[in-house]
Amino acid sequence: MLMIEHDVIIVGGGLAGSRAAVAIAQTNPNLSVGLISKVHPIRSHSVAAQGGIAAALKNVDAHDDWLTHAFDTVKGSDYLADQDAVEILTKSAAEVIIDLEHLGVLFSRAEDGRIAQRAFGGHTNSRACYAADKTGHAILHELVMNLLRLGTKVYQEWYVMRLIYEEGEVKGLVAYCLETGAIEVFKAKAVLFATGGYGRVFNTTSNDYSSTGDGLCLTAIAGLPLQDMEFVQFHPTGLYPVGVLISEAVRGEGAYLINDLGERFMGNYAISKNKMELSPRDITSRNIAQEIREGRGINGGAYVHLDVRHLGKEKIISRIPFAREEGMRMLGIDCIDRPLPIRPTVHYSMGGIPTNIDCQVIGVDSQPIAGFFASGECACLSVHGANRLGANSLLECVVFGKRSGEKVAEYASDRPMPKFDPTIYQREAESKNKKLLTHQGNTRIAELRQALQDLTTEHCGIFRDRTSLTEGLEKLQGLKHRYAEDLHLDDRGEVFNMELTAALELGSLLTVGEIIMTSALSRQESRGAHSRSDYPNRDDSNYLQHSLGYLDGNTVKTAFRPVNLSLQAVDRDRFTPQERKY
């Protein structure tokens, strides 16, 4: 049977995938590149990134440098970040900002014409470059225009159903076309996953509806591990009750967090009294959650206030216009006149598909998997460790999106096209869709998805313990059984069947949710975004390691691997693990 062939296939059209496509064309324009995205690339979740992209440009603070940026990143990670990857991230930052500017990105400017930079939580210096509070939008639009200009073939609104992994090598994938219902087998010398995060595993999230962890699920089903999945970042300022993000740029511009007593309560906690509202996200989220738990939410409710009224109308409109628009659009609140109700919302996945610094996916034994690469939020290098600093995610997508494209281009330039029989893979995918479309169960997708999201939020939220996690995993087995045996789809058509897509995504959410909770149960300490009330302290002697969660049949198993500490040789005083203090 015929297959669709490309030298390289990229899955995901957000910042990492788009930057990789541009890099491949720049490195070797003779390579055939196909980019598959389940939405139009411009609708990728990267477009929602607001606050900024970090780089030591020194436009605001002449004393900034890459090493200070690296230290902030490692310290913010609670020392779980791989320091060799952090060195590449921070050393490359200034270069990629200039590169983006040359590709057409319109950054906000200081009065002297240089790229403007603002303060961000956990950063020593003002180093977040931005385009008002629509930074991801500005970058993604230019990258997509450039990849189209350079000849990348885009398969938009295709859903990838299977990673073809044979004989220790990734050889291609199987994808379903939403427009026609056709299932096609793709063959390639290399596959790059840039599929984003999995915020929709939880019930309150800033993530797009498409952030369902599909790439991570496909990797796990292939028998490969996922790394550090217990580290789920709650952004401190999700608009209550909808969960939509109010950017960290708002606190970077000087917003206050206020409790029901009218206090700027961040000053009441020893770990945040110096940085106040610009403390790292894990600390700020826990403090807000603690205020709410102790009854100091506004009117005793489940939220606190984010107050920008003191900034003045002109600054609000010029610096944080989108935050103001969101408040008015979602709640009818104009932050010029009234504070915004906020509470933590699931925002980012520090964990993901483990890779080395060349973006090659690695197995449980830390050895690279032939033909398989990953970058962006779906990957775990790890440059964020247990907690990501704001403005470092866009930076990771651009730095390692570019690097992954260059490495993939080198890899594919002298590799033969792999050989395999596509028939079995196509038949398997067709059978899977047919079963979902014809099964006469009683459980609707929305009901089961809500049950999963409520379960993970209740049993694996900001605060966790053994009892809650164990109970959650037991309940999850029941949800998996209902998914397999009792699902019901009303739409039985094949063309643009969004219910079928939602059913496939729900399978991803169940798999990823189970690995998150199992990994959280195995890490018996508190570190960064992972807070165990039964193990309240960090335990470097046992857990200064990356966790690995992988499928063995229908069971999730865990293992660990060491953290890279190479920057200790550069500055032992700062890069040797120590207690986090701000």
CATH fold call of the largest domain? FAD/NAD(P)-binding domain
Radius of gyration: 23 Å
Q: Tell me about the biggest sheet?
A: 8 strands, mixed
CATH superfamily label of the largest domain: FAD/NAD(P)-binding domain
The average pLDDT value, as a whole number, equals: 95
> Which structural class fits the helix and strand makeup?
alpha/beta
Number of strands: 22
Helix content: 25-40%
- Note poorly predicted spans: none
Q: Which CATH first-tier class of the largest domain would you pick?
A: Alpha Beta
CATH architecture of the largest domain: 3-Layer(bba) Sandwich
| End-to-end gap | 61 Å
| Count of helix runs | 16
> DSSP strand (E) fraction?
15-25%
Subcellular location: Membrane
Enzyme class: oxidoreductase
Cofactor: FAD
Protein name: succinate dehydrogenase
